[in-house]
Design brief:
By secondary structure, the protein is an all-alpha fold. It has one domain (4-199). The protein has helices at residues 4-11, 19-45, 47-52, 55-82, 93-122, 147-162, 166-203. α2 packs parallel to α7 (166-203), α4 (55-82) packs antiparallel against α7 (166-203) and α6 (147-162) runs antiparallel to α7. InterPro entries: PEMT/MFAP (IPR024960), Phopholipid_MeTrfase (IPR007318).
């Protein structure tokens, strides 16, 4: 059971009306919304592929934009933590090293996901018609679904613990929620793309 009193004390440290905190929440929510809207628009119209001359060039451009947005999100996240108080009793070595370990695991999942999928596989290449030959089942996909998302969430969780930051923990929850919503939209849509591919192969 959740200790409600502990949660109230924890988030009593967080000023949700602080401008930096609000900007961080907006940046977290905006990123998956942006890449889902743009990728679906591209899948429907092929407009980006036409502008950039090829689906691969368009995908690389979108990937670069996503990377920049993720850097902005991380900066906003860090600044929001810095502007709010630390949690008393958590600013110790054990908290720091626990956070460091969690961030390391998250980084492992993110990097190994990228290596398994490649650039276009990571950055929505299937929406551009750049489809993989088969579903990736090697590590880290053999351990959990969507390891890129949950690895990223773990990095933010670890970063929050390293800073003993209640604001960071709350923002990490926002990251987890935004990714959960993204998965609900992306999963079925991506599966449909590959179903259509299989239909095309069978009809030949």
């Amino acid at each position: 059971q959740v200790d409600v009193a502990a949660m109230v004390r924890l988030f009593g440290y967080v000023d949700v009306t602080d401008t930096g905190f609000i900007v961080a929440v907006l940046s977290i929510a905006f990123n998956p919304l942006f890449w889902n809207v743009v990728a679906r628009w591209e899948h429907k119209t092929r407009a980006l592929s036409q502008v950039f001359g090829s689906p691969r060039a368009a995908c690389y451009c979108l990937g670069a934009v996503i990377l920049v947005l993720n850097c902005v999100r991380s900066h906003c996240f860090t600044e929001a933590m810095k502007s709010q108080p630390k949690l008393e009793g958590w600013d110790y070595h054990w908290t720091y090293y626990s956070g460091l370990a969690i961030s390391a695991v998250g980084t492992l999942f993110v990097i190994s996901s990228f290596l398994a999928l490649g650039f276009t596989g990571t950055f929505l290449g299937d929406y551009f018609g750049i489809l993989m030959e088969e579903k990736v089942t090697s590590f880290p996909f053999s351990v959990l679904d969507n390891p890129m998302y949950w690895g990223s969430t773990a990095i933010y969780l670890g970063w929050s613990l390293m800073h003993a930051s209640p604001a960071g923990l709350l923002l990490t929850a926002v990251v987890a929620i935004s990714y959960t919503i993204a998965v609900l939209y992306e999963g079925p849509f991506t599966e449909e793309i590959y179903r259509q591919k299989q239909k095309g192969v069978k009809s030949k």
